[in-house]
Amino acid sequence: MSFKYKELEKQLENSCNQLHKDFYQKFNNEKYLSAGGSKLETFINELQKEFENTAVSFLANHKLEKDGEAKKRVFSITKLYAKKCIEDFSKV
Length: 92
Prior knowledge:
Blueprint: H1 5-28, H2 37-61, H3 68-91
Helix pairs in contact: 1-2, 1-3, 2-3
């Protein structure tokens, strides 16, 4: 495998930080408060999809779609960051 895990981690950290900013902006505009938990659940589902898309794009950009070990590691790292974001958002 010839891809850089640190590069992926940095991309995911940036993505997570941006998602935090976006969420707090939406939260402050009361887009997720007015309808109770259902809108927050929708946001969390969108967040999970975005992290999944990040992993797929990373694999495609580095031509690693057929590398089973790379896929496993990329999705593992992505899942950890997504979980952290979801936990942080669920506390609000």
